[in-house]
Automatic annotation (TrEMBL):
Name of the protein described by the UniProt record: peroxidase
A GO MF term: heme binding
Xref: CDD domains: secretory_peroxidase
Catalysed reaction, written as an equation: 2 a phenolic donor + H2O2 = 2 a phenolic radical donor + 2 H2O
Amino acid sequence: MASLRYLLAAALVVAFVLEGSSPAQAQLSPFFYSSTCPNVTNIIREVLKNAFLSDIRIGASLIRLHFHDCFVNGCDASILLDNTTTIVSEKFAGPNINSARGFEVVDDMKAAVERACPGVVSCADILTIAAEESVALSGGPSWTNLLGRRDSRTANRTLANENLPGPNNTLTRLKDRFRNVGLNDNFDLVALSGAHTFGRAQCRTFSDRLFNFNNTGNPDPTLNTTLLQQLRQLCPQGGNGSVLTNLDVTTPDLFDNKYFFNLQIRKGLLQSDQELFSTPGNQGEIRLNCRRVNGNSNIATRSSSSEAALVVAIALEGSSPSQAQLSPFFYSSTCPNVTNIIRGVLQKAFLSDIRIGASLIRLHFHDCFVNGCDASVLLDNTTTIDSEKFAAPNNNSARGFEVIDQMKAAVEKACPRVVSCADILTIAAEQSVALSGGPSWTNLLGRRDSRTANRTLANQNLPSPFDTLDRLKASFRNVGLNDNFDLVALSGAHTFGRAQCRFFSVRLFNFNNTGNPDPTLDATFLQQLRQLCPQGGNGSVLTNLDVTTPNVFDNKYFSNLRNRKGLLQSDQELFSTPGADTIDIVNVFRKNQAAFFKSFVTSMIRMGNLKPLTGNEGEIRLNCRRVNGNSNIQLSFSRLCLTNHHLKLSLRQIFTTPHALMHQTSFWNAFNSDIRITASLIRLHFHDCFVNGCDGSILLDNVANDTSIDSEKFSMANNNSARGFEVVDAMKAALESACPGIVSCADILAIASEQSVNLSGGPSWTVPLGRRDGRTANRSLADQNLPTPFQTLDLLKGRFTNVGLNDNTDLVALSGAHTFGRAQCQFFSQRLFNFNGTGNPDPTLNATLLAQLQQLCPQGGNGSVLTNLDLSTPDGFDNDYFSNLQANNGLLQSDQELFSTPGADTIPIVNNFSSNETAFFESFAVSMIRMGNLSLLTGTQGEIRSNCRRVNANNLSTRSSSDGGLVSSI
């Protein structure tokens, strides 16, 4: 149903330009206020956020205003006009009277916009932006608004009565209403009706369905009988018609696709909803007040070039000097869209996992309570990392790691190596709350990631569901939070999410070893929980933390505590501990949701500032599950201009930091714009070393009238697939500028390969240096020596032994480089349709992957279409490649042969590398060094090319070495 969300977004954009074929429509633009009021959306969003604090319905109310505006003479804000002697207000039309609401919030938005940009932004555009922001802040999609509408000078109540769809409309009438205003009567109708996925409706809009549908004296037969009984109790015949109930019975305050599921089970509230499933320039003016036209209709439009000032008040006193370095603007230049990226991933995750919001905020809590907010909770076990994931409070309960991985991947794609995992957790927590109906706040950012974890401290510091109030208070004080407001406010995050029986079952049968249940537990609730979690039963069974609104972030948690329905002992202790100072706070938050939201935000910001690593502390992990291979990236060009004529010493000086070359702007720019470049560069090094050794021969171009160079770029294994030559050129140019004639192209490839692996999350190793460049290329030998994607295991083994590598560990380890990068359809399509001329697909290919690949690469289709070599973590260097082979998800035949060839000696190596990433990394580094030593040119052999694409004009090296050995980069 994810596509339905974006179908709805598209329909909303269409609906919001209902001026039809008018020339004015063409003037709408997303950049209309870019110079006159560039901050208009932010201004409106802030007013809306404040409104949400006291009125969860406001989002649905505002989008309804916009709908009801656009359906009457277009989107001109006519609905906002009050009655005057000349204006017959649409507010009193049948569909609006005593139901349209939110006018005061629009007034607040207009006032705020006028302060920043007087006389510039129309009320019609304010409604448009408010509608989009209402959807986004409620968990729905966001889109780019087309702006530039002007406000009408009149209203039309008669047309409102005629045009606006009614809650009692049949499908035929609904279709007519949509067609009449220029919308289509199927997709637009269904998508825009989906806005009833949040908000409320009054009994009077559906009560005829309950008792006398279509004057039959019977209820609507399309109404679910259980819902019918519930609604009859809420809205008795002849009762108060203004009583409200939820339009969406499942997630009433979230913008999601549950509305459509409701229709499928006959739980659409309004007849008009259920009918969708159960039926066989210079026009106008810029109003200064949205409720009335300007006093002088010829008033000149005023514009302002000044940008509204953004004021962020942060009153936090930290104990760490580094805390002052956190800032809401930390990524404003380096990754300005980071929050939107994370929100986008989270919104998709919500579609399949309603629990994910609560799970992510819990990860943030459990991170910050252990040595501060440094993403240590995300680290997996290694030989040196004792993962916090296996601490008692986290083991088999902490979850959401895969979603964090997805967020990290999306952020890395947009802003490589910029945003820390700790900040991703921070933003994800805030967005989880906001998308679940809770408050939003400005995140302070700039944290760095730790290089270690502490399972012991996690066991000591993290609050437990079995804690007494005294122990809870101590846990909060120990990490620097206060033991009353912070404790109660942050505990309020249990207003959504689930808990396993094992975390509260002692309360049900043997509380504090008394043999009796917890006396503070409501008796009815106790019986319900005993049925769900019988003594000796399955401890992993889940139930809601908040029995009232389990998926919404609100203040019902505190009402539950007052009613003795706190699920965990640690929750109920806040209210049931005699004389506790937390009781009054619970009562305040229970009665005043705005007070809870405000305190929660303050406490979340305070918790997020616990011991952050900033500046040069820690690192920016490339993979949130593991520390970087070597994060000491430094460069000093003063070291690169050398006078020493001995190549060995020169290379030692040049590569005093093995990362020096890769810190060139050329490489970073390439990595920023091309995430594939790292896999492409290591492939160049492989394909170089397999043909007469590692001599840079693969880089040579064909030369006109020179038959001595037969470029390897056009061999079968390289033609139209080898890439990255321009990046190597840029590296060479940068080095030649600093140290002319010293560093060979062969060594550049060797270092580029090591750095590509390391920068993608893999190991680092010491690269032996001192290679010289070949003066020729050999296309024929490239065709003979290079492994191909179509080879059997025997052929692969032959290719490796032919060049001097072993045919088991080297073969499997170096094949592991397919853990990142892409491959074209032409290199595996025969596996999909006609494997080995059988007319059938490769039987070793996973059936699900086969179906996906057949769609991507149809028979006879475009062979150059790309897909990921590693379908799990396509841009990270890890050991998932081997797990893919075990699941028959290897993309290339040459990959899958390593595991699927019966009795092969490569199978146990694959199994070892799949279960032990450290073993893979160590073997990979050893095999890379071994491959990098194949058939070297050193000493006076070959040359140091000035241009990697062609041999030097005089075939003489610019510098020579005193001996023929390789030295290590140090």
